[in-house]
Structure formats: C-alpha cells, structure tokens
Amino acid sequence: QVQLVESGGGVVQPGGSLRLSCAASGFTFSYYGMHWVRQAPGKGLNWVAFIRYDGTNKYYADSVKGRFTISRDNSTNTLYLQMNTLRPEDTAVYYCAKALRPDSPFDYWGQGTLVTFSS
Amino acid sequence: SHVLTQPPSVSVAPGKTATIACGGNNIGSKSVHWYQQKPGQAPVLVIYYDSDRPSGIPERFCGSNSGNTATLTISRVEAGDEADYYCQVWDSGTDHYVFGTGTKVTVL
C-alpha cells in the first residue's frame, strides 16, 4: 500500500535551517510529482512547493521562495525540503503529498512532521 | 494569486444534506479538488476534477463547479463526516496551488 513518511521536523531557532524528508513506498515514485503542504496550528492548509516527477521543474509559494528548496532522489524514493532562514511564521505541520501531474489532485498524503520554534 | 473563499462552518443534522461552497473568480474554468481532514489526521482526497470520486469514497459525496462557485454536497450525513473540508485548484498562470479557507462541518 502507498506510504509517505515524513521526518526531520523539530525545534529550531529563528534564522536556522532544517531539512525535511519524505520516504515513499507502495507506488512508482519516479512517475509522480510531489508536493509539500503545511498547516500552522489551528489553521488551514497552505501549499509550499511542488517538484515534477523527474525534478526538472520546481514551483514555490511566494512566502518561501528563495528560502526553501524542494528536491528528490528517485534512486532512494525520497523527497526533501531544505528550509533556510526560518521564521516563526514557518511553524507548522509539514505534509508531503503525491500528484501524478501538475494539474492532478493531491491523491495521497503523509502524516506530517512538526516544525516549531524555540522561544 | 487565486483566492478561494469557504464558509467557516456548516452544521447539519444526521441524515440531512450538507452543502459547502467554494467561491473564486471564474472558478468554473478550473478543476477543483476537495479534501476531508479529521482532527489529528492528514487530509484525504474526496472529490477530484470537480465531480469524480476516488475509490472508497461513498457516493454520498458529490461535487459540482460552475461560474464563480464550486460545491461539495454530502448527502445523508453521518457522524463520521464531521471534519474540515478544503477545496483546491491549480493556477496554471502562476504555477501556484491554492487551498480554500476551509469549512468545519459539524453533525448535530
């Protein structure tokens, strides 16, 4: 069965960096585009980034462009999100989700990993 | 970028019909997808390409899209349908993905 397992979340200080991973199994990872979506505590869903199946195209939300980088390794079925210059407003649960094409729905989501800030 | 507006909450009695609107400028020209999110869980796709249902989603869930409003309709509502629901589109002009503001469905 399809599995997407996020990891790498944790507590970070403003200006810090973090790399999230999403391990995929149960489907042909190299055929699918992949998204990162985040959800601040008690808030709605916000799209973060998308990468095409072969990594050739990447799209970013305006709020993270220039600070976050999405990448993938099709040899290990892993999606990444490198987050730099983190801000308190980046606090959220980060989900990875798969989508066949750019216009496709997010047809399966992982359980998410939480990024929070130290006070 | 595209803005999608949903009512914050909808309350419905068991067995009745819940209707959730998703408003956006000329949304009828885009494909709309809908997600259900229960507390503490990841979102689940319930309607895609306006009105298609993934396998395993009950026929009680229906979608439509025209003009400036997309609609998710849940018929014969059950207690297990209580959740947050989000609409979503892809803005091909900006290559951005937009979620609606979300609607909390409460079963009375």
Q: How would you describe the overall organization of this protein?
A:
The complex is a heterodimer of chains A (119) and B (108). Chain A has 119 residues and is mostly beta strands. Chain A is built from no helices and 11 strands. In chain A, strand 4 (33-39) and strand 5 form a beta hairpin. The N and C termini of chain A lie far apart (40 Å). Chain B is mainly beta. Chain B is built from no helices and 9 strands. Chain B has strands at residues 9-12, 18-23, 33-37, 44-47, 61-66, 69-74, 83-91, 96-99, 103-107. In chain B, strands 1, 3, 4, 7, 8 and 9 form a 6-stranded mixed sheet that branches. In chain B, strands 2-6-5 form a 3-stranded antiparallel sheet, with no helix packed on it. Chain B is globular. The interface between A and B is medium-sized, with 23 and 26 residues.
Secondary structure: elements and pairs:
The complex is a heterodimer of chains A (119) and B (108).
Chain A: E1 3-7, E2 10-12, E3 18-25, E4 33-39, E5 45-51, E6 58-60, E7 68-73, E8 78-83, E9 92-99, E10 108-109, E11 113-117
Parallel strand pairs in A: 2-11
Antiparallel strand pairs in A: 1-3, 3-8, 4-5, 4-9, 5-6, 7-8, 9-10, 9-11
Chain B: E1 9-12, E2 18-23, E3 33-37, E4 44-47, E5 61-66, E6 69-74, E7 83-91, E8 96-99, E9 103-107
Parallel strand pairs in B: 1-9
Antiparallel strand pairs in B: 2-6, 3-4, 3-7, 5-6, 7-8, 7-9
Largest sheet of chain A: 7 strands, mixed
Average pLDDT score of chain B: 97
Question: Low-confidence parts of chain A lasting 5 or more residues at pLDDT below 50?
Answer: none
Helix run count of chain A:
0
* Rg over alpha carbons of chain A: 13 Å
**What is the tally of helical segments of chain B?**
0
DSSP strand content of chain B: over 45%
DSSP E strands of chain A, number: 11
Shape of chain A: globular
User: How confident overall, as mean pLDDT of chain A?
Assistant: 96
The rounded Rg of chain B comes to 13 Å
Quaternary status: heterodimer
Tell me what portion of residues of chain A adopts beta-strand conformation: over 45%
Order of helices and strands of chain B: EEEEEEEEE
Q: Strand pairing plus helix content of chain B: what structural class?
A: mainly beta
